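[#protein-structures] MJ: dropping NUDIX hydrolase here for a structure pass
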Amino acid sequence: MTLYEQLQNYKPYNEQEEKDKEAMMWFMKHSENVFTRDNKIAHFSASSWLVNKDRTKVVMVYHNLYDSWAWTGGHADGDEDLLHVSIKEAEEETGLTNVIAVNPDIYSVEILTVDGHIKRGSYVSSHLHINVTYLLEADEEQELSVKLDENSGVRWFTLEEAVTACSEPWMKQIYQKLNEKLRRN
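AK: finished. structure tokens for NUDIX hydrolase:
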């Protein structure tokens, strides 16, 4: 099933997801290079809400660019299988192995702003991440490790701690939404 079909089938959780889903589908129909950074205005990314088996904790990384505790995730970089991107990024950013999808379906959708910044010595203009989030699971007993070029910390938080540890106001709302969805399942 294509990502467009997955988005068509996705049932939004709230008004934010409803409006973002509509915009994402429009973007896919009317834009080029949506899965690569060649599209300088917006491109797809994949994130994960990476929880333990009991669904009581989530892994967060201290993201150097955003100067905040954050979920794992990254750019599609041409890969249209965003679940694969989500798992790959989660493993790369945390050092965890055997990260699995709780469910292969989309867990959440959001359009996120990225402020202009310097990355590897070059300026990156402000743009949008057309983001798809997946619910992933890992063993909390496994050793965590930092990915030095992206983060300076990796740790498990309770669901409530994950929200309060984040210093980005909009992302706090997203993480709260993810926790609400988790508690309802």
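MJ: nice. The chain has five helices and ten strands.
AK: one more thing. The helical segments are 3-9, 15-30, 82-94, 159-165, 169-184.
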